[in-house]
Each structure stands twice: as C-alpha cells, then as structure tokens.
Specification:
- This protein is of the alpha+beta class.
- The protein folds into two domains: about 280 residues, Zn peptidases (Aminopeptidase, 3-Layer(aba) Sandwich), CATH 3.40.630; about 150 residues, Alpha-Beta Plaits (2-Layer Sandwich).
- The chain contains 15 helices and 18 strands.
- The strands form five sheets. A six-stranded mixed sheet has the order 1-2-6-3-7-17.
- α1 crosses α3, α1 packs across α15 and α9 packs antiparallel against α10.
- The radius of gyration is 23 Å and the shape is globular.
- The protein starts with a helix and ends with a helix.
Length: about 450
C-alpha cells in the first residue's frame, strides 16, 4: 500500500478531528461548515462538481460529483458524515480533539466514527478526478452533517428536499469491514441493515405533597424508579433473523458457541455467561428489540413530593417492529404503572435492510481480495442507526463498509464507537482509500 496515500488520508483526518464538529443533538451544535471548508479545499479541481447545502446556520453538507457518461446506468454514492459526538478529555490518554499521530495511529473523536472513512472517501474522489476517471454512472461523495443527531439537518433534509439530486442506486457508508479470523480465512462484515430507532419520553404522574411527610404519598420520582427497574428487567423474546444467522455461520465460530447464538431458546442464558463481552452485547442486541432507560428528571424542590418525573428511553427495534408493537411492549413492561404514564414519541423509524444479491455486493467481494486474498464478506445487522436508512427508503441498496488492518481487533473497534481512546491506524486509512478507488472503477468503470 503506497505510504503517500496513507499520509494524505492521515493529514485530512487529523484536520477534520481538530475542527471539533461536536454534535450534542441541538440545532446550534455541530458546526459542520468547518469540516466542509476543509473537504472543499481537498476536492476542488477539474472533473469535480461541488455543491453545499445549509438547512440551518453552520449545518452544512457538501455534495461532490463526478458525472457519469451514461445516465441510464447505475450510480454509486460514498456517504461520510462530518460531525462527531462529545468527548470528555479527562477520560482519554490523548487529547480527543488533538488528532495526534502516535505509533502509527491517529487518535481523536471521530477516528472510527466516521471521519476515517469520510477522509478516505474524499481523498479517493480527488485521486479519481485527477486521473481523469469517467464513470458510466454518477459517482457522488457527500460529506453530510448531523448524522449524530438523527440526520435532521443532514441526510434526512437532503432526501426530503433534494431527493432527485441525491437519489442513487448504490451507497456505501459506515461501518463494517473489520477483519475477523475464521478457520476458512478472513471474514469481513458488511452492514446490510440496521435496527429501528424509537425514542420517547415517559411522563410519570404523581401527587404533590410536603417532603417532611412521605408516608403513603404518591411520588412521581419513586414511581419512575420502579418504571426504570421494570423496563430494564423486562424480557423481550429473542428473534434470530437471517442477517444474524448468516453472520454467525459465516465467521466460523466453534459449534459450541455458534449453535446457541442462533437458537432463540438458548441465546439469552448463553450471552449472560459469554466471557467475550463485546460479542455478548452484539449477539443480544442483534437478536432482541432492546429498551434502555437513559435519562431521568424529576422533582422541583428538595422539600416537595414530586408530581412529575420524566424518563427517556432509547428503544431499538428488530425488523418487523413498528411503533404500535413498541408502544405495546412498553405498556406491558410498565404493568400497573401504565395508567399513570404518558408517552411522547420523539422519533419513530423502523428497521431497514438491503439485499445481498446485488452487483454492489459482488463488486465488494471482488475488490477486497486485493487486501485480503481468499476473504469473504458476511452480512451483518447494525444495532445503531446510520444515514443509510434515509436512502433505503428511496429504494437505494445501501451497505456499511470500510476496510481495516488487523492491527486492532473487532472487540477493540466495538468499544471505541462513542467510547474513549478512539483511534485508527494509518494502514487502515490507506486500505479504505484504495477500496473506494477499486470499487468505483469495478462498479462504474
């Protein structure tokens, strides 16, 4: 792998990290225009069309296009977001917004989620344009805003307001491609779908009173605490979908591990005893609709029995779960508290999936052989949300993929998403850049 390619992507990744485009979920955060300015400076030149869109101040997305020679042929989009989640520097070994290069690894928030892929996509687009590459169908790169805030000012806005400009046949975004060893060779997970997102606030009602007389009072905070316990302990039956079964079968796990991971009757007990915590969490999340109580507010004054408490839930639904099924589950878990709880839904977005019997899948299987001869791609269901879901609703075949070295393990990467000490090695950056060039030429050339 040419060292200069890894160096180019490294320098761009460092610059994007240092911009600190932190998205805390509010409209005034993100400031993705800073990273758009950097990406524009990289991409400007002959053969590349550039557009920017800013639905709210600072919430800018950049669309770069190498126009195809035949509008009737399929198009490909490389979709990378430019925002990152917050980071507490006290928890990190290196400055999360320093973009430091330490022992061949770039450290910083966004190093694997997903400024690494965004930077490698941009460099690949520049190389393709400079080489005079003329695809048959359009090749598009979008540095998109607000992925970490549900896409309101990014992919959601683009697919609603500029649907014909951003419609594409095939799309690659975050985040698969972490090599996994198997007895038959390297296996590379490709995200072919993702769970649904259902976010809500439960308002628990009580009766106010004096804090000095708590006997037989109707405290909303106490009831909210009971609600938290019931929701966290509620048992949702396991469901083994095709993507999870194909993933487990594809990575060549020993039968004593693989068999219970695809058995709905055994998996619950098995994951609670599995020593590999990362695999246990993934296995559970890929086979269950999950409920996570995440934020709790209640009370107004220390000497007042509270009459209101608010509890926020992060619910991720498997394919086939819609809002009616999710709300019914929440009500069942609350039991006799349900009559004293109002539910306000902030976000309701069911699961989306893409097929694997596609030219994009076939092209990926071919181009990864350059880095990992004899490797195979295996489908995987993402338990988190990506911007792919907005494009799948338009009929796009969308996968999550990249290409990584074997320097860090699947478990390492799994803990770094929204975690501490996020980092990526330079070899992985070069591998991803080469992947985008090879994929573009293979699929569109």
């Amino acid at each position: 792998m040419p060292e200069d390619v890894g160096g180019e992507v490294t320098e761009l990744l460092q610059a994007l990290i240092r911009s600190a485009c932190v998205n805390d979920g509010t409209t005034g955060s993100g400031h993705e225009d800073r990273n758009v300015d950097i990406l524009r400076s990289v991409l400007e030149g002959p053969g590349m069309g550039l557009e920017t869109h800013e639905p709210a101040p600072g919430r800018t997305s950049l669309v770069a296009r190498i126009e195809g020679s035949d509008p009737s042929t399929p198009s490909l989009m490389l979709l990378g977001h430019t925002d990152v989640v917050p980071a507490n520097a006290d928890d990190w070994r290196h400055d999360p917004f320093g973009g430091e290069l330490v022992d061949g690894e770039v450290w910083g928030r966004g190093a694997v989620d997903m400024l690494n892929l965004t930077s490698s996509m941009a460099v690949a687009m520049r190389h393709l344009a400079q080489s005079g590459f003329r695809p048959r169908g359009d090749l598009v790169f979008i540095g998109v805003a607000d992925e970490e805030g549900l896409g309101t000012h990014g992919a959601s806005w683009l697919t609603e307001h500029l649907v014909e400009d951003v419609r594409t046949d095939y799309l690659i975004t975050e985040a698969g491609g972490f090599p996994m060893a198997s007895p038959e060779g390297v296996r590379l997970p490709v995200i072919t779908g993702e769970k649904g997102v259902f976010w809500c606030t439960l308002t628990v009602r009580g009766t106010p009173g004096h804090g000095s007389q708590p006997l037989r009072t109707d405290s909303a905070v106490v009831k909210a605490a009971v609600a938290v316990q019931r929701l966290s302990e509620f048992s949702v039956p396991a469901e083994v979908h095709q993507a999870w079964r194909r993933f487990v079968e594809g990575i060549g796990l020993p039968p004593e591990i693989a068999q219970p991971l695809v058995d709905p009757e055994q998996i619950d007990a098995f994951v609670h005893e599995l020593p590999a915590l990362g695999l246990a969490r993934q296995a559970h999340a890929c086979t269950h609709t999950t409920v996570a109580p995440t934020v709790l507010h209640g009370g107004s004054k220390v000497n007042v029995i509270p009459d209101r408490a608010e509890l926020q839930l992060d619910i991720r639904g498997l394919p086939g779960w819609g809002l009616p099924e999710v709300e019914s589950m929440v009500r069942e878990a609350l039991g006799d508290l349900s009559d004293d709880v109002d539910i306000h839904w902030h976000w309701s977005d069911p699961a989306t999936t893409s097929p694997t019997e596609t030219p994009l899948w076939d092209a990926l299987e071919r181009v990864v052989q350059r880095a990992y001869p004899g490797s195979r791609c295996v489908p995987f269901l993402s338990v988190g949300a990506t911007d792919a879901r907005f494009f799948r609703k338009l009929g796009t075949t969308a996968y999550g993929f990249g290409l990584f070295s074997q320097r860090l393990t699947f478990e390492d990467y799994a803990t770094m998403f929204h975690g501490i000490d996020e980092r990526v090695d330079v070899e992985s950056l070069a591998l991803s850049e080469q992947l985008w060039e090879d994929l573009s030429r293979t699929l569109l050339g």
